Amino acid sequence: MRADACRNLDTLLQTGAKVLARDPSASITQIAAQAGLDRRTVYRRFATREALLVALFEAKLDEAERVLDEARLTEAPIAVALHRYVEGIVPVSRQWPLDFSSLVSPDHATEERRQQLRARLSAFVDRGVDEGFFRADVPRTWVRKLLDDLVKLAAHSNPEMEPPKAADLVVEILLRGAGKQ
């Protein structure tokens, strides 16, 4: 791909994620206009709105997988891995604010990747409970939901907060509610 085409694609995806996060029903024409691109340029790359959505989710999944790998959820100490994960995923959530639930007709491969990411995080929470880091009397699904909700809150309700500070707060709040007492 030519350099200008790569820039256009990156601009389109970045803009598309933000526009669709604000208005899940936004059209390709609206996204193209916000990105400063001609809609024909967008349609040459993505024949349908669904194809654009799949590309957006693939980009978000790529970044989330990178964060999970770097956090070393299976081998690093729980506290270290948790902090690394939150510090890495907050910027990803800000960069790709689109919610997976807005994908009306999910692409099977994309959905499979999403489920694999969710399973990795659930396994991490299980590990935390098994190792006594999280309370055993709190349902594991609650701990996972609380982690997801705190990350979302840190990423979007206070966008000027630096990721390390956001991670500190998320971990502290999570541990006060679900941490081993």
Automatic annotation (TrEMBL):
Question: What are the UniProt keywords, alphabetically?
Answer: DNA-binding, Transcription, Transcription regulation
Positions of the HTH tetR-type domain: 6-64
User: Molecular function (GO) terms listed?
Assistant: DNA-binding transcription factor activity; transcription cis-regulatory region binding
SUPFAM superfamilies tied to this protein: Homeodomain-like, Tetracyclin repressor-like, C-terminal domain
DNA-binding region boundaries: 27-46
Taxonomy, superkingdom: Bacteria
Q: Name one Pfam family in it.
A: TetR_N
Q: Which PANTHER family does this one have?
A: HTH-TYPE TRANSCRIPTIONAL REGULATOR BETI, HTH-TYPE TRANSCRIPTIONAL REGULATOR RUTR
| Name of protein | TetR family transcriptional regulator
Q: Which organism is it from?
A: Kibdelosporangium aridum
